[in-house]
Specification:
- This protein has 195 residues and is an alpha+beta fold.
- The protein has two domains: 99 residues, no CATH class; 80 residues, no CATH class.
- It contains five helices and six strands, in the order βααββαβαβαβ.
- Strand 4, helix 4 and strand 5 form a beta-alpha-beta unit.
- The termini are close together.
Length: 195
Amino acid sequence: MASEDGRNEYHASTAAVCITGGSTIIDERWWTFAIALLSKKNVALRNYQREKLSSSWQSIKNTYLADQAAYKLFTSTAPLVQPPGQSSSFKALFPEGYFTVSRDDINKLFEPSIAQTVQQATEMINSIRDSSERPTENLTIVLTGGLSKNKYLCEQIKLRLKDMNALVFERPPHPCTKAVADGAVIATVDGFVSR
């Protein structure tokens, strides 16, 4: 239903639920993984490398499609050049300015969030349909928050919920990155979310 200002309104069919598996949680999983990976090589990142790696990870996380066998995570902006006068035994840990991480490893970082979202959505859908006079009516699932920008996550959720008939998925064109503040809380207080 459209509001007076032309924005879509979604009325809650069930109470809002906070799923603690969003963007920040995936970032925490990433850093745990990265630190363990680098520790195996006895690598301690310098601040500028940590910042570059963080930026590189954010870019991958937001656009990840699982369409490559491995992904480059940059630790500097350019390949390392051996300093003049340095002995030939000089060895750089990241001579190209990056290291790679496999698609399988990145999928594992997303998996707990996907599984938790699907489990919560399934429980909510079943609850709504069990108490509805029209259990076959279409239900719209609006994916919001920072991770709704990630097509892999959204496609995995759709794929895993495909057997639950009559679902419509929407992703706002400019996803709300403050889903809790602008989504679940507003829905609980006002009874609807508009965009």
